[in-house]
Specification:
heterodimer; A: about 40% helix; B: 5-stranded antiparallel beta sheet; 4 helices; globular
Chain lengths: ~110, ~130
């Protein structure tokens, strides 16, 4: 799985590409853990290029959410495809995560 | 009826998803239901890999699919440790937790999820999805 990382103003944007499951969620987990350890600013995970995600991906996002919260920073998700959006709906994690339809909208909210 | 035997390596989950997607599509399920069935089976296989086989990548998972006029039945057989039903039947209530979402997906997506642990070794999980 490719994971693209870029920095824009006060936000680190992480953009994984592909399917997130038990096989490659550890790679995403490690990337996110390293970023949160470095006392990075706010985090945006852009899911536009994620075509599939299961509970292992979800658990990874929950872990980084809890870590980011402890640091008093913000985490946003953006651009999930319907299949991915549905797993947040089924688990009601859409009530906890800030999920935006586009990266632009997510960045706007994180800048506040 | 279609049947595949696949090793319990997480790398194989993608192949399993492709197999199930193709089966659900040819059974006549719409995209939304197909996506959901793929997720449920993926979660069931993930549970087998992690819990039945304790992440041993060398074990066998046998997946059988049966399409009928009104439903699709998918059975998953493993030869590992039997599930802890107290955990299966009582998933944690808190939304924000680091695991145990897989069982939630299986229960919400599939119309039936039945575990048969009567054989000496392992478990057979039968998943049924009815066509609308």
């Amino acid at each position: 799985m490719n994971i693209n990382i870029e920095r824009q103003d006060n936000v680190v944007i992480v953009k994984p590409d592909g399917e997130i499951d038990l096989h490659n969620s550890p790679q995403l987990r490690k990337t996110l853990q390293d970023l949160t350890k470095e006392n990075q600013p706010n985090l945006l995970i852009d899911l536009e290029s994620v075509s599939y995600m299961d509970s292992s991906g979800l658990a990874t996002l929950v872990e980084v959410f809890q870590s980011i919260q402890k640091q008093g920073k913000k985490l946003a998700l953006s651009s999930p495809v319907d299949t991915v959006k549905n797993i947040f709906t089924i688990t009601r994690l859409d009530e906890i995560f800030s999920i935006y339809p586009t990266q632009k909208e997510a960045l706007k909210e994180l800048a506040k | 009826m279609n049947k595949i035997s696949i090793k319990s390596d997480p790398k194989n989950l993608k192949e399993i998803r492709c197999f199930i997607r193709s089966t659900a599509e040819s059974s006549g399920f719409c995209k939304e239901d197909t996506d959901a069935i793929v997720l449920a089976v993926d979660e069931a296989c993930t549970n087998i890999i992690r819990h039945a086989y304790n992440c041993d990548c060398t074990k066998d998972i046998i997946i059988t699919t049966q399409t009928e006029k009104d439903k699709l039945t998918i059975t998953l057989q493993d030869f590992g440790e039997k599930p802890d039903f107290s955990r299966l039947e009582n998933p944690p209530k808190e939304k924000l937790r680091k695991g145990r979402y897989g069982v939630v997906f299986i229960k919400k997506i599939m119309d039936k999820a039945e575990y048969d642990t009567s054989s000496e070794q392992g478990t057979v999980l039968k998943l049924v999805k009815y066509k609308k």
